[in-house]
Design brief:
- The chain has seven helices and no strands.
- It folds into two domains: 35 residues; 101 residues, Serine Threonine Protein Phosphatase 5, Tetratricopeptide repeat (Alpha Horseshoe), CATH 1.25.40.
- The chain is an all-alpha fold and 141 residues long.
- Helix 2 packs antiparallel against helix 3, helix 3 packs antiparallel against helix 4 and helix 4 packs antiparallel against helix 5.
- Helix content is 65%, strand content 0%.
- The longest helix is centred in the C-terminal third of the chain and has 18 residues.
């Protein structure tokens, strides 16, 4: 019985190492990169750049993602969401242009997923929250 438990532990340790984990308890989403598709990498890279304040790079990644024929609808929805955020905070466009582009990105997300929604903290954002709410509550044609 003791030998059997050791084998199970060794197999678990081996599998976690193969998956890129440093320990069985630290095997998180970010550690298993070999199993992701190229478009999943694009999503994650775009979000990382957005979170790091590399907005130009993030926008380029998200634009490439929505143009990518291999991207899933849900990946494109995520890209449009972040593009909306980026348009809303763009320092290079006028307020009207920012809002129009933000609105267009949210509309495209809703076209792909009519049930698209933001997390409560995102929906309550003072810049893009009102734009999102306006798009969400506009009657569909």
């Amino acid at each position: 019985m003791l030998g059997s438990n050791r084998k199970l532990i060794l197999v678990g340790l081996f599998l976690s190492i193969l998956a890129g984990c440093t320990s069985l308890s630290s095997c998180g989403d970010d550690d298993v990169r070999l199993l992701r598709t190229p478009t999943e990498h694009m999503v994650n890279n775009g979000i990382k750049n957005y979170e790091d304040g590399n907005y130009t790079t993030a926008m380029t990644i998200f634009q490439n993602l929505v143009a990518n024929k291999d991207a899933t609808k849900s990946e494109k929805v995520i890209a449009y969401k972040y593009m909306a955020f980026l348009h809303c905070i763009s320092p290079t466009a006028s307020k009207d242009t920012r809002e129009r582009m933000c609105r267009e990105s949210f509309k495209k997300a809703f076209e792909l997923n009519p049930n698209f929604d933001l997390k409560p903290a995102e929906a309550g954002h003072p810049v893009w929250g009102p734009v999102f709410s306006s798009v969400k509550h506009t009657p569909k044609k």
